[in-house]
Design brief:
Elements: H1 16-32, H2 36-40, E1 43-52, E2 59-63, H3 64-79, E3 82-86, E4 91-93, E5 96-104, E6 108-119, E7 122-135, H4 161-171, E8 180-183, H5 187-199, E9 203-206, H6 214-217, H7 249-262, E10 267-268, E11 271-279, E12 284-291, E13 294-298, E14 302-305, E15 327-330, E16 344-348, H8 352-363, E17 367-372, E18 377-380, H9 381-389, H10 395-399, H11 404-412, H12 416-433, H13 435-443, H14 456-464, E19 468-471, H15 474-480, E20 484-487, E21 490-493, E22 497-500, E23 505-507, E24 510-513, H16 521-527, H17 530-536, E25 569-571, H18 576-594
Length: 611
């Protein structure tokens, strides 16, 4: 390996496409020569390379030339990248050249996004996104690779599509075992199941509910998506162009059920996993399940928890819960307002679920009080769509050529380390636009914040997965006093009241614990054991050292969609956007292992927090 630090030949003038093409020529020459130092010199002093599986068989971000050097020294020989070409003409704005590109590795094909800035008279990479989108020889049966369906000619052994499907269903779990078992059949499990199906990986998605989509149908009746439709498509099959911007929960439930059928996802309803153990000898999992009440043993090689980052209810242990005579439940089990008309309801919490529930209760003439225990970030839905999402996920974005797939990559190309710097101006604009609303809200006594550094909703979601509300109307009820608001911590419950630490007593017939959810590794502790959950470590968060996201800096979502410290155990989840986008990279990692492709993992995540 040569150790030259000769400067790149790229100049700072010329057509953006020519500049980008010259940069890629320098990069490829350095990579072919295995000259890591020359390749690293093409990156700016402050620079970020985010790789989604293509080089690292991981989801990882490296920073600066030292990070680039470490990544390439570990991966270059096995990756053998080549064929870097522009996918479309590059453009330039504010001195930054942005270029979409394609490339190949020894085993796959990739797509990426490059941003070049000027430093010391040269164009150098500021951000560099590389993603794997397919494996050579294992392309998905799409477009020119789509299946014929009908096989012409005469064949006495011919099977119809239905017969093949029935035979597969009858053998799965008995004479044949799934290579991948996905526990959890919500949007995450279904999206991954569809990806694995298309890639030809024997898999099975199991869920405790009777029908796909019941995870949505069984929630409180006013629930709807707070994210717009352009942000929420599933893989392969987008929502139709007359689909509502904000879909009601039951409509989403029906879509997930239809999607499961159309995409032929191997899916067992009414199936509960009761235990799982790993065998070092056989290199497989033994998972005990109950399917429609009957015990069954599955032996998958890979085990995926798609049980939802908002799935394991966090219910605080409050003194007096055993003496309270009314209805006490977590927000995830809230049935809706119908049975509570004329009653007094106290909702503990002030985030998305709390506001949704309070709003629906008020609409049904319920005397409702919200207890705010800590500050909450609120952003109005219309403002979020216009300022926060409109350039990427909207009808105007589609008209400008920004497809959902392209938007996903643009969003992914902004490294988490600096993402907040792009978010802060957007939320400052929202604060100015809705100044009157925030003044009214704070006059009501509501404790509002914009995140630890003013970066708003998305960073709160990525860092901690809580602490926010996308306002679709209920915040005005608090600001106006229609929903009563108190601030404080819960001390205890009596037979008929919630008592705060300052002695305030809130009469209650119903108490709703809108108190959020625990780390996903709690599911691992329940199904496998606590030792395995501790080896896995905390799930979610970036290590930003902000509220509820302790350091050290991780650079990526902890343990999501990538190899973990527990061999052949994977975590998959997030909102519809993340379930769609990151299911691709998880599916490709699983497919490569199924096919016996070597997958040396760069920078396997360390465990700093156990829960």
């Amino acid at each position: 390996m040569t150790e030259t630090l000769d400067p790149p030949t790229t100049t700072t003038t010329g057509d953006p496409s020519e500049v980008a093409t010259a940069w890629f020529a320098d990069l490829e020459a350095a990579l072919v020569a295995r000259d890591v130092a020359a390749a690293a010199a093409l990156f700016a002093t402050e620079s970020y390379w985010r790789d989604l599986v293509s080089f690292s068989w991981n989801i990882t971000t490296v920073e600066g030339r030292a990070g680039v050097t470490t990544l390439l020294e570990s991966t270059l020989a096995s990756t053998d990248p080549s064929g870097f070409v522009l996918e479309e003409p590059a453009d330039e704005a504010d001195g930054v050249v942005t270029a979409w590109f394609l490339f190949e590795t020894a085993v796959g094909r990739g797509r990426g996004l490059l941003r070049l800035v000027e430093e010391d008279g040269e164009r150098r990479a500021f951000t560099f996104l590389t993603t794997l989108y397919e494996l050579k020889g294992h392309e998905e049966p799409r477009n020119e690779h789509r299946p014929r369906g009908a096989e012409h000619g005469a064949d006495k052994k011919r099977q119809t599509w239905l017969e093949r499907k029935q035979e597969e269903a009858e053998s799965l779990g008995s004479t044949t075992q799934p290579y991948v078992l996905v526990i959890g059949g919500g949007q995450g499990g279904i999206a991954l199941g569809a990806r694995l199906r298309q890639l030809g990986v024997p898999s099975l998605v199991i869920d405790k509910h009777p029908r796909p989509g019941d995870q949505w149908r069984n929630r409180y009746k006013s629930l709807c998506l707070h994210d717009p439709v352009w942000y929420d498509h599933l893989p392969y099959l987008k929502f139709p162009d007359n689909w509502p911007v904000f879909a009601p929960k039951d409509k989403i439930g029906d879509w997930l059920e239809s999607y499961t059928k159309v995409m032929e996802v191997p899916y067992w309803s009414s199936t509960t996993a009761t235990s799982a153990t790993w065998s070092e000898e056989t290199r497989e999992w033994t998972v005990e399940v109950e399917r429609e009440g009957k015990p069954l043993t599955l032996r998958p090689t890979q085990l995926v928890f798609a049980t939802g980052m908002s799935g394991k209810a966090n219910i605080p242990d409050v003194p007096g819960m055993d003496v309270f005579r009314g209805d006490l439940h977590h927000s995830s089990a809230h049935p809706g307002p119908d049975a509570y008309r004329g009653k007094k309801v106290v909702v503990i919490g002030s985030n998305n679920s709390a506001f949704d529930i309070c709003g629906a209760l008020w609409e049904n003439d319920v005397d409702v009080t919200m207890v705010q225990r800590s500050s909450t970030h609120i952003v109005k839905s219309d403002s979020l769509m216009e300022i926060g999402l409109g350039d990427l996920y909207s009808e105007r974005a589609v008209a400008a050529g920004v497809t959902t797939e392209k938007a996903d990559l643009i969003f992914a190309s902004l490294p988490y380390r600096i993402l907040h710097t792009f978010q802060i101006p957007a939320y400052e604009a929202m604060a100015a636009k809705d100044k009157d609303f925030y003044e009214r809200l704070e006059r009501s006594g509501f404790q509002h914040d914009w995140g630890d550094d003013g970066s708003g909703l998305f960073m709160k979601y990525l860092r901690r997965g809580s602490g926010y509300y996308i306002d679709v109307g209920a915040a005005d009820l608090v600001a106006n006093g229609d929903v009563k608001l108190v601030n404080g911590q819960i001390d205890h419950l009596t037979e008929d009241a919630v008592v705060l630490a300052d002695g305030t007593e809130l009469p209650a017939d119903v108490v709703v614990m809108a108190t959020g959810y625990g780390s996903m590794n709690g599911w691992v502790a329940d199904l496998i054991d606590q030792e395995t959950a501790d080896r896995l470590g905390k799930v979610w968060g970036l290590g930003s050292d902000t509220t509820k996201d302790p350091g050290p800096w991780e650079g990526e979502q902890r343990n999501m969609w990538k190899p973990t410290q527990v061999e052949q155990l994977w975590m998959h989840g997030g909102n519809l956007h993340q379930s769609r986008h990151y299911s691709l990279y998880l599916a490709l990692q699983l497919k490569a292992r199924f096919e016996g492709i070597d997958t040396p993992v760069f920078a396997l995540q360390e465990v700093h927090h156990t829960g």
